[in-house]
Amino acid sequence: GGLNHFNPNTKAFVHYRHQTNNPNSLSDDIVRSIFEDSQNNLWVGSGGGGGLSFFDPNTGKFTIYRHQAKNPNSISDDYITSIFEDSHNKIWLGTWSGGLNLFDPETSGFSHFRHQDNDPSSLSNNTVRSISEDNQGNLLVGTDDGKLNYFNPKTTQFTYYKIPNDSKTYYGESIVEDKHGNLWLGTSGNGLNLFDPKTQQSTNYSHDANDPFSLSGNYILSIHEDKHGRIWVGTWGGGLNLFDPKTEKFTNYRHQGNLPIRSIFEDSQNNLWVGTDSGLDLFNPKNAKFTHYHQK
Question: pTM to 2 decimals?
Answer without folding.
Answer: 0.89
